[in-house]
Amino acid sequence: MSTTLFIYLVLVGILLVHVSAIDKFRAAVYEHKVIYPGSRSKVVTRQQALIDMQKNLQIYQEQSMTASSKGARIIVFPEYGLYGLNWTRASIRPYLEYVPEVTSTKWNPCDSPLKYPGIDVQRNLSCIAKNASIYVVANIGGRQPCDKTDPNCPPDGHYQFSTNVVYGSNGDFIARYFKFNLNSDENYFNKPVKPDLTTFETPFGKFGTFSSSDILHFEPAVHLIKSLNITNIAYPTAWQDKLPLMAAIEFHSAFAEGMQINLLAANLHIPQENYHGSGLYWPTGTSVNASYYYNSQNQSSGYLIVEDMTPFVIPPNDRPSYRHDNLRLGSVQQMKEYQEQLHRKERDKTSKSIADTVPDELDKIDITINDDDYTALLLRGSYGQPTVCQGKLCCSAGYEGSFAKDELYAIGAFDGMHTAGDSYYLQACVFIKCATKSRDSCGKPSTSSSSYMSKMSFSGNFTTEYVYPEVLTDQDGTPGLVTSAWLYQGSIIIDVGLYGGPLSISMISRDYSRDPRRIVNATKKTPRT
């Protein structure tokens, strides 16, 4: 183990404070192959809707019992897991039910199903938790009444919310969350007036919960984690895989590492529509540890992931900051000097055996990655120290490896507003494999690589501390996470080689203060309600 890695592990170990005397807890997430109702465009009866959802609830029950038998104390199910995607406001209505606010008065839907009318799904989930003796986190459709005294009340007299519900291991209803950041196609749901910061207590730590695209925004995800010091997140999601940078396992593991949290992410399993990729992710201070499922085969099935995790809290104001002083100053030269020091000795040893040479000038091109226009350099040779800039962001890498003759790589920078499907300010430094050896393929998804990365230091002069590092490689023909051999300490550092051919080595940075909705809110004279 290198001295740098050892010192960093010690520092992170000092910051992590274990919860009580519990050294670990076993968690589960289930990637669910949802059984769709017969029709999602026509309005059916409530009875038919319950019959449809019961097919999925039966699977939830079986998986909860299995997870419990393996020692899991909490299980998370995906967003839209009970009825699937793509509805109209009218057609989804029979699948919704009133979800009360959690109060100091305990309510157990399994034991007291008549307290509120029409809460069949909640009763089922409560009984699943109780019978399996496991905490259950699921996503259901909520229907909340309103009237004309509410200026935001929809014309049909009720709100429709994508709702996370949580049940204790005895079946008690302990948490409710209404999804705040809706996708553009979720017009059948309403956005709450203000975000919920939803938490719940367990014997093995305090948890927060939010859904899907919430993870991309300050509200509620970052606000919840930072202001309430939450380090365990139960995360139902319906995440559509978007290589090369936004595959579910790729970004969710990066978020866990960047935010220093345990993330329990349960996704749908609809690979023919690119919904797949679930996992349990926890930070180590080096790479991210993960137990995950990533299967893009159309005929594949859902999957239960069970793994031990470590509960911890980081004392307020003690979250580690990974920004070096030179990064705050935007000194690309200092980054290059560090990278030169890292690679000089190894390059001297191996230069005679390297057949390729580094050209004096690299080809500069514009490429599109996940609908964003990057400034990029095409990389040639087995080692190099390229720097690429866009706007005020500069990305600088020092790398060394063995790269296949028929494979092309690029380093890219993006500094601007992401506007495809959602709007938020993004800075990104990426080292990616192009889909083919044609420059026109750079930025398109690639899932195979026969190259090898032996050493790397990769940095960017980001304007924010919120940086999410990703390392994705080809592992026997399937994209996979590298859960060792690299660390993030203001830069991604690789000094013992990566397992698998590199597909993406990237840093996704979010400057939340520059998001459109936060800029608008900051100019208001009264606080948001």
Structural features, described:
This protein has about 525 residues and is of the alpha+beta class. It has 2 domains: about 30-315, 4-Layer Sandwich (Nitrilase/N-carbamoyl-D-aminoacid amidohydrolase), CATH 3.60.110; about 325-515, no CATH class. It contains 8 helices and 28 strands. It has helices at about 5-15, 45-70, 120-130, 220-225, 250-260, 325-330, 330-350, 515-525; strands at about 15-20, 25-30, 75, 95, 135-145, 160-165, 175-180, 200, 205-210, 230-235, 260-265, 280-285, 290-295, 305-310, 310-315, 365-370, 370-380, 385, 385-390, 395-400, 410-420, 425-435, 450-460, 465-475, 480, 485-490, 490-495, 500-510. The strands form 5 sheets. Strands 2, 3, 4, 5, 6, 7 and 14 form a 7-stranded mixed beta sheet that branches. A 7-stranded antiparallel beta sheet has the order 16-17-21-22-28-24-25. Helix 5 (about 250-260) links the parallel strand 10 (about 230-235) and strand 11 (about 260-265). Helix 2 runs parallel beside helix 3 (about 120-130). It is globular, with a radius of gyration of 24 Å. The termini are far apart.
Count of structural domains: 2
Tell me how many strands there are: 28
Q: How much strand content do the residues show?
A: 25-35%
What is the approximate shape? Answer: globular
CATH superfamily of the largest domain: Carbon-nitrogen hydrolase
Query: Low-confidence parts lasting 5 or more residues at pLDDT below 50?
Result: 1-21, 319-339, 345-360, 522-529
Distance between the termini: 51 Å
Q: What is the makeup of the main sheet?
A: 7 strands, mixed
Percent helix, as a range, is: 10-25%
